[in-house]
Amino acid sequence: MKQNAYIAKTDMTQFGKCIDRRLKNCTDEAIIGAFVVNAAAGTITVTNIEA
Amino acid sequence: MKQNAYIAGIGMTKFGKHMDRGLKSLAGEAITAALKDAGIDKSQLDAAYVGNAAAGTITGQVCIPGQSVLRELGIGRIPVVNMENACASSSSAFVQACSMVTAGFHDVVLVVGMEKLYHQDKERIFSVFGGCIDKENEAGVITQLAENAKRHGAQVDLSAAGGTRSVFMDIYATMARDYMARSGANVEHFAQVSVKNSRHGSLNPNAQFRNELTLEEVLNAPLIADPLTLPMCSPIGDGAAALVLVSPKKARELGLARTVKVSSALIASGWDYEEGDETVAEFASKQAYEAAEVGPEDLSCIELHDAAVPAELMYYEYLGLCGKNEGVNLLMAGETALGGRIPVNTSGGLVRKGHPIGATGVAQIVELVEQLRGEAGKRQVEGARIGLAENGGGYIGTDAAAMTMTILSK
What we know:
heterodimer, A: alpha+beta, two-stranded antiparallel ribbon, 1 helix, extended, B: alpha/beta, globular
């Protein structure tokens, strides 16, 4: 299936045994890191997310 | 979200207690019926979207429920997407499938909602509902319920919430008490919703409950969570529903004459409300009306999420059928009953047709399609042209976590 979309930024947590962390904690780290706040690339924050 | 897809075929099982049947059997019946109704062979399918919420808890099928069921029917190769959004799982699958057809990626898509909730172990059943809230804030939810009961002077044993009854009936009870305080509604009004929907459900061969109820029967039934009695609450149930979506091009190619158009379909999520905010249902319905270029005054019939009957009165208001706190007037004027201006839950709604949670969203669409085709038999809304379905899923904060809104037109 041909696609036409762009990846603006990525982030992730370290994978492993995170007994002291929950889904919200791990996911928040990855999500916040994935937002683009960069003069050249533009700014994408939670208010820009459509889905 | 504006959509451009057509529903070519529908099928569903009778909802109820099917202890001797598994997901494959239930979903297989609904899928086979939907394909036959559409006149489409399984080899023509481009994709399948499958909604299910509880298989992981009830049957142990934590992952790939869709592939497991479809492989049994000889459906493979194509993309199969599993969707979980609590009680809005299959309507969410439907929205995604519509979007893929509208975007031009697929021409023929199968959408399935399936659920088994009955199990010998009642705690296991109710743990499904307990999993439809934010588990990290479970204590906060119980505190919220207790504070509401205290504020309204209600006698509630919250130790039973989630153990011997669904925590959602306690959540709906808090909404009911707040609604009574702000609108003047009373428990008899809630009972009247159950009576109306029992009349509708008695005309639906696929409904879990076919008996008509009197006001006295509803009021004198066992109390589940003050002020809700048993027939004011949706039951545990098993069942499946399926439909076949086609693109406009494919509908023309195949010469399909009984299609129903999906004008708009969208998913919204709740947020932390601030003073003066609209509800997620108001937010989602406004978008759905705008995308379909219709208003509440244009609707012929509605299927909405009456998991407990007070919600039906609230949704009258959130969907714009009447003004704030006027839901009771609309009900008591008979406007939302069959024969009224805007019949609501002609299927019997969740309280009478049943609520196998992952199947509910597609089943609501099945009812609207029957109405718009003029094939609803004794519960037919005369001249039905436009229908709306509202389906809520889960609970976070003070409202639904997920909500879908769909508008179909003839």
